[in-house]
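Quick one:
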Amino acid sequence: MKPRILLVDDDPLLLAGLRRQLRRHFQIETAPGGAEALQMVETQEPPFMVVVSDYRMPGMNGIELLARIKTLRPDTVRMMLTGSTDLGTAVQAVNEGHIFQFHVKPCPAESLIRAIHEGVTHFRQASARTSQLQDMEKSMALASEVQRNLMPKDHLVADGLEIAGKSQWCDETGGDYYDFFIRQVGGQSHTGIVIGDVTGHGIPSALLMTTARGFLRERITAPGSTAAIMTDVNRHLARDVDGTNRFMSMFYCEIDAARRCICWTRAGHDPALIFTPGADAVEELAGPGFPLPLGVMKTAPYEESRRAIQPGQVIVIGTDGIWEARNPQGDYFGKNRLMALVKAQADQPAAAIAGSVIKALDDFRQPRPPEDDATLIVIRITG
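Output:
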């Protein structure tokens, strides 16, 4: 099929002559002015590959027409054929109409045919890039949907606990991960909570996050402490990321509400923060030493820590995308600001606390775009 070309000129004799010259090479459509051309460009499919327009036309000149066509059909190649030899007109046409080529009348037929063929080639290349970009955007949207479906869809209310999580990604997909679940340990129900932060952003980080989630979900079906679980996940992950310079931090804890106890293991992740309202105190759930992130060393050692918990306490676990977020002045959101918000709402449901922190983070950062993924888990000890 011949390439579809639109010729625009208010001179019917010129249009007829151009049609005769070009019809052996192209499928030619004509328009007597800018308004008619715009309607054809907007409504007809498939799109015109090339539009060749005169400059001086009543109502709408060629520069205005080509500039509007660029908005309507970005891939359509725009050319100008005019009797004006003014350099200023040519410069304006290039800057405002974003034209592909500028030709002065009378233009030899061979030159015009060659120029239009070049425009057709340019259109096909641009269309292919647009199609690839659209396919990529669809794939990214699907990947984002799949990844979000791996996160908890709602907050969790268990015996004596309320747990809620929120995650914001700075790309379509993210490297932050959180999860919570019920796990049977020695005949007792423990509530498991995990948060992770993969280096980098985008698809590579999302794939590593998904891999880590799979390893953890499989491992928690077998007996073992939080340290044993972290050790096994690290061994599998280190094998997969060997030589890639990728790793992830993780904080994994289990709460035994019946015994009012929390045990946890860190792998290069910031400590959780626990607020005790009666004492108006914020403490860290840190543990011994400085454990390595997952994936750095296959034989890295991990240790479990534990402490008692009591009703009214609020535990906050986050990724550094929260406290390292910056406002337009360059100030950091910080952990003090985070915990001040938690203290002020310690008697509210966990989901409300998490939501208010994320809103405050958005308000603090605006209009600055997020530079990192930000994830937060809030745990309220209710009984």
